[in-house]
Design a protein that fits this description.
250 residues, 10 helices
């Protein structure tokens, strides 16, 4: 990568970190979308970077014992980990033979997930059934395996439930960390974790931690609705652009 590309990558990391701290789930999607839009690095490499940062960030956030619902956690983990395996296998197939299709799929995913930011869901009176959690967790795992961006489906499902906010937060952090660990293990075992991903993750760490530390102490003086709309616009632009690029290259 040229020097300007490293600067562009760090700018994308900063924007993705800002989005993560304001929405709770947009880091991986926005990082993939922006770097893909600017053609800074391959999708597979950036997804590996996102997995590393997710895992390290979880260790930092979970310094105390997490608050979890054990049975629900077990169900979510089983289904999401199975989904990660499917997603990694799909990534191997699409990354080798159909890179344009992979980019198109990423673009569609980003556009759909951007809509979740502006769609308000009603809280549920009672906990959803096991089938519902299994479906959302499995889909989340597939997205995690493909793009290291497992957040949107599970975030949408859990925040609708009659659960304590701390339980939801800690559950999401643990699930995403375990998913990231499995994904990294599978990628390493199949020799698809390249050195460039390791170097880029090291570059990104100071930006992620520094910006997160600053934003916790100095929250942006912007209305939450305006922040969500801004992140929505960034995701929509990145996703739509990736789709156009993929279609034009066919």
């Amino acid at each position: 990568m040229a020097l300007w590309a490293h600067g562009g990558f760090l700018l994308c990391v900063a924007l993705a970190t800002f989005a993560q701290n304001t929405t709770g789930f947009a880091f991986g999607l926005l990082l993939l979308g922006l770097t893909g839009l600017l053609q800074l690095a391959p999708v597979e490499t950036v997804a590996n970077v996102s997995s590393v940062l997710t895992l390290i960030n979880a260790f930092v956030l979970l310094r105390n014992r997490p608050q979890l619902a054990p049975r629900l956690m077990a169900l979510i983990l089983v289904c999401s980990l199975a989904g990660v395996g499917v997603g990694v296998e799909l990534l191997g197939l699409l990354g080798t033979h159909e890179r344009d299709l992979l980019q198109l799929l990423l673009g569609v995913t980003i556009v759909v997930c951007s809509l979740l930011l502006v769609v308000r869901s009603r809280p549920l009176a009672q906990l959803s059934g096991g089938l519902g959690f299994s479906c959302f967790a499995g889909l989340s795992g597939v997205m995690g395996g493909l793009f290291s961006s497992a957040g949107p489906p599970l975030v949408y499902q859990l925040y609708r439930q009659p659960l304590a906010t701390q339980v939801v937060r800690d559950t999401l952090i643990v699930v995403f960390a375990v998913n990231a660990l499995l994904r990294l293990t599978l990628m390493a075992c199949t020799q698809r974790f390249d050195l460039q991903a390791g170097y880029l993750a090291l570059e990104a760490l100071p930006v992620v931690f520094g910006l997160t530390w600053y934003m916790r102490r100095h929250p942006p003086a912007i209305a939450p609705k305006a922040l969500r709309l801004g992140v929505f616009a960034l995701l929509l632009l990145a996703g739509a652009s990736l789709m156009v690029q993929a279609i034009n290259s066919v």
